[in-house]
């Protein structure tokens, strides 16, 4: 793996310092709401709409989904003024000179559509907030980054963790560990779609043609957290159990850091869509460890000194989460877009690309193949 691009959050970004500005395309001006167009009307689009309803700096202008009736129902439920049968129709209708302009297209469609839809929106002059995983393949991820660079448009992956108060607490505590030697990040949750799969359906979450599987759906969280905190690894080692559909149900990705600032660190990323989790995550130094309850939304966090010894002591670093699940991410996107930024320094596009490089290497090792991989060959 390349170590050229670390993806490390800079202190300047964490403090809200100025970011590179958009060269072209619509950008929200200070004092008015950031206008979103939503792609998809499913589970995550609903979470997004709830966050927008609670965020004074945001509004949804339009929605497009695969089935026009779903888009219309979503529009009616969330008070969205425009519903479109396709993304293309939405892009044609909401440019900066039209009656109902959109600043940012939020992409909440199945994984396999993220890259093409993000590129189409950027090419049409819109900013893009795209759900995780950023793309299916490294070539797609790099093409998205290159398109944003060329068009000057805003581009960011909607990986929420970076903007969580718990992640800020972990970043602040990390220097107190000394050299981190091992981390174990766990994202494990029995899938609500498993019963449909077992009954003979093929939901997107388990469909290789749509970029499904545990690694892409849940493994992305521990891998992204590792890259966020430690940068891209030098080596990736993956094992998994596969379903008959060809995607993985659960597995482990080990990230090894052999060179540079994090030399000697190993991060075990455990992910599963077929088991429940009662185990937290942990980052260990030589005599201290940080425990976190959840590696997507860390809330109960503690710093343990001399674990297992008579001198053991525990410092509570827990944070309180409140409001809508996507609230912290959305507030930051509104701040960035209103400031004319082209992306987030706290969760830069380079980190999203690095995560897809790791997932792609892991998929190659466990034998999960997507049709989109053939286009990369
Ligand atoms: N950040 C998070 O915490 C989080 C959580 C869950 C999911 N996600 C991500 O969000 C994405 C969607 O997941 P989900 O659980 O919301 O899936 P979902 O409930 O199946 O919803 C997907 C939506 O995409 C729509 N769609 C399909 N093809 C489309 C097309 N060509 N153009 C426009 N819309 C299209 C579907 O349309 P119809 O309804 O009209 O058929 C559906 O409304 C995935 O990438 C997933 O990884 C993120």
TrEMBL record:
Residues 178-273 form the GFO/IDH/MocA-like oxidoreductase domain. It holds the Pfam family GFO_IDH_MocA. Residues 34-156 form the Gfo/Idh/MocA-like oxidoreductase N-terminal domain. SUPFAM superfamilies: Glyceraldehyde-3-phosphate dehydrogenase-like, C-terminal domain (SSF55347), NAD(P)-binding Rossmann-fold domains (SSF51735). Residues 1-20 have a biased composition (Low complexity). One of its GO terms (molecular function) is nucleotide binding. InterPro entries: Gfo/Idh/MocA-like_OxRdtase_N (IPR000683), GFO_IDH_MocA-like_dom (IPR055170), NAD(P)-bd_dom_sf (IPR036291). Residues 1-30 are annotated as: Disordered. PANTHER family: PTHR43054, SCYLLO-INOSITOL 2-DEHYDROGENASE (NADP(+)) IOLU. This is Gfo/Idh/MocA family oxidoreductase. It comes from Actinomyces marmotae.
């Amino acid at each position: 793996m390349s170590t050229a691009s670390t993806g490390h959050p800079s202190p300047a970004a964490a403090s809200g310092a100025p970011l590179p500005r958009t060269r072209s395309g619509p950008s929200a001006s200070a004092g008015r709401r950031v206008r979103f167009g939503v792609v998809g009307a499913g589970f995550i689009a609903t979470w997004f709409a709830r966050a927008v309803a609670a965020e004074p700096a945001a509004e949804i202008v339009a929605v497009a989904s695969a089935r026009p009736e779903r888009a219309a129902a979503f529009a009616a439920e969330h008070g969205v003024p425009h519903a479109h049968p396709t993304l293309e129709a939405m892009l044609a209708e909401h440019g900066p000179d039209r009656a109902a302009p959109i600043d940012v297209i939020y992409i909440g469609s199945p994984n396999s559509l993220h890259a093409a839809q993000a590129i189409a929106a950027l090419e049409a002059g819109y900013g893009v907030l795209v759900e995780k995983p950023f793309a299916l393949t490294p070539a797609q991820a790099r093409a998205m980054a290159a398109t944003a660079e060329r068009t000057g448009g805003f581009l960011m992956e909607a990986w929420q963790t970076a903007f969580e108060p718990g992640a800020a607490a972990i970043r602040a505590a990390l220097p107190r560990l000394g050299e981190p030697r091992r981390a174990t990040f766990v994202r494990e949750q029995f899938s609500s779609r498993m019963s449909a799969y077992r009954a003979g359906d093929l939901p997107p979450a388990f469909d290789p043609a749509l970029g499904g599987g545990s690694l892409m759906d849940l493994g992305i969280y521990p891998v992204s957290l590792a890259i966020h905190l430690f940068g891209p690894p030098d080596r990736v080692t993956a094992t998994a159990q596969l379903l008959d559909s060809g995607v993985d149900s659960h597995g482990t990705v080990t990230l090894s850091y052999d060179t540079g600032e994090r030399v000697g660190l190993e991060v075990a990323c455990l992910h599963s869509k077929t088991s429940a989790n009662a185990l937290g995550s942990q980052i260990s130094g030589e005599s201290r460890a940080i425990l976190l309850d959840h590696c997507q939304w860390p809330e109960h966090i503690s710093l343990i000194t001399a674990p297992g010894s008579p001198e053991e002591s525990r410092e509570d670093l827990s944070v309180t989460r409140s409001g809508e699940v996507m609230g912290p991410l959305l507030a930051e996107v509104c701040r960035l877009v209103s400031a004319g930024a082209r992306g987030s320094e706290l969760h830069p596009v380079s980190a999203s690309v690095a995560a897809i490089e790791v997932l792609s290497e892991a998929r190659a090792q466990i034998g999960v193949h997507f049709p989109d991989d053939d286009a990369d060959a």
